[in-house]
Amino acid sequence: MNVLVLHGPNLNLLGTREPHIYGTMTLEEINARLEEWAAAHGVTLRIIQSNHEGVLIDAIHQARGWADAILINPGALHIYGYALREALAAVNLPAVEVHLSNVHAREEWRRLSVIAPVCKGVIQGFGWRSYLLGLEALYALHQERAAQGRA
């Protein structure tokens, strides 16, 4: 199984950015934990972080040729990233949206996601584990599809 992992704007600052909200783990540490899990399960990850929506969109378009699924933390782009949403819809790959914090326990303007409707699900509020839970969900969905001969 091949998974594109996308980290959106400002996630490169994890570890020092508002640690009371996002924790103290760096993006590199999160990626290392995902890579460790992936290696143990025969999953290949391609991990990209960008502060630019167009870079994320290009990565999604390219994933159409090699990926089985997409794990995405769009950051604040979940609120207004309509072009990102359209890219996810266009490639028609199973996707899971993840967030470190519980956006519903924060400011009201964070509570609507334009990305969620084109994803299999949304996992949030579990810190770095939101990524791991999202990856596990995509893996389970892929295994089920493979068992049904649809992977």
TrEMBL record:
The active site is at Y22, H99. Its EC number is 4.2.1.10. The gene is aroQ. Belongs to the type-II 3-dehydroquinase family. Keywords: Amino-acid biosynthesis, Aromatic amino acid biosynthesis, Lyase. This is 3-dehydroquinate dehydratase. Signal peptide: none annotated. CDD domains: DHQase_II. One of its GO terms (biological process) is chorismate biosynthetic process. Catalyzes a trans-dehydration via an enolate intermediate.
